[in-house]
């Protein structure tokens, strides 16, 4: 989005002179940083560029722990990734989820200490530990807010999202979010007849082509035993950014139950000793449904539960 555009070919190499980092922060914050960039092959100038970017992040209350200019200039992969994740978390996830809870005292979701007592210019072991603790707390709070938003958007379509990992493997959660935005784009009944790969491909394609949400993931990224939580969080947060009109809906009352439009449950093959009874739990586990069927007949491929007591 820079003018002229910049292309990143290798993150660990391209970030080492500070230009890509400063340009990224300029685009995300809307503030001017590139005028401070000095192009040079000398390490001292490269370190100075990165230091200015890190100082801007600290001034923006982005909590960086154990990340210094030298490590970024050397292309330390784990610290570069840690830095980028902190930038994503603050500029995309924290700011967007901060607007969800309108009763929150701070839209930035930054609950860390402020004022002179929080000065970390001369870090000691206790202050570093405190910053780590605050950073982790902030991260969990932001991700929790996003998860609650997702649950409220997907619940009425019978999709239970418990986390930002295994809950997304079937592709139904992605499709339910899209349907909550535009119900004409997704048919959940048809999705139940498709494979996880097909649903994931449909979701990513529809989101990009119809809603303008950039495709950051591929089905193969999700169809693993433990999908990467940070990748899914980053992708899902884009829906908030593109559709701010959905923010805040029913969010200030997290205990309020929303009506369930319909629930579709896949019945997998079960061992012979268990096939006579199938137990289905609702998302809150408050209501349980037991389905009995003749042993001489195969288990039903799916069960449709209406939101009525009958």
Automatic annotation (TrEMBL):
Q: For bias kind Low complexity, which ranges apply?
A: 104-118
Coiled-coil-forming residues are none
Q: Where is this region: Disordered?
A: 104-132
Q: Where does the record place Polar residues bias?
A: 121-130
| One of the protein's GO biological processes | nuclear migration
GO MF annotation: an example: actin filament binding
Q: Keywords assigned by UniProt?
A: Actin-binding, Membrane, Phosphoprotein, Repeat, Transmembrane, Transmembrane helix
Write down the membrane topology: Single-pass type IV membrane protein
Chief location category: membrane
SUPFAM superfamilies assigned:
Calponin-homology domain, CH-domain
Q: What Gene3D superfamilies does UniProt report for this protein, alphabetically?
A: Calponin-like domain
Kindly give the CDD domains that the UniProt entry links to this protein.
Answer: CH_CLMN_rpt2
Pfam families in the record: CH
Compartments annotated for it: namely: Membrane
Q: Where is the Calponin-homology (CH) domain?
A: 1-92, 140-244
Q: Name one GO cellular component term.
A: meiotic nuclear membrane microtubule tethering complex
Name assigned to this protein: Calmin
Origin organism is Fulmarus glacialis
> Lineage from the top down?
Eukaryota, Metazoa, Chordata, Craniata, Vertebrata
